[in-house]
Design goal:
This protein has 57 residues and is an all-alpha fold. It contains 2 helices and no strands. Helix 1 (3-26) runs antiparallel to helix 2 (32-55). It holds the Pfam family DUF465.
Length: 57
């Protein structure tokens, strides 16, 4: 898999997590631990994407 393809894949996962976070925050009984887990996963993906973008330059 090329770096560009990996970046696209991670970007899709990042957007999916963003959607999941939005859905979780609209629930009347938001689970704070689950929400924190989603946000941490999203942050890790963002860091991976940034690292790959630096490599591809």
């Amino acid at each position: 898999m090329t770096i560009e393809a990996r970046i696209r894949e991670l970007g899709n996962r990042h957007r999916n997590l963003d959607t999941a976070i939005q859905k979780e925050t609209t629930k009347p009984a938001t689970d704070p631990l689950y929400l924190k887990s989603l946000k941490l996963r999203k942050l890790r993906l963002k860091e991976q994407i940034a690292g790959l973008e630096r490599q591809s330059r």
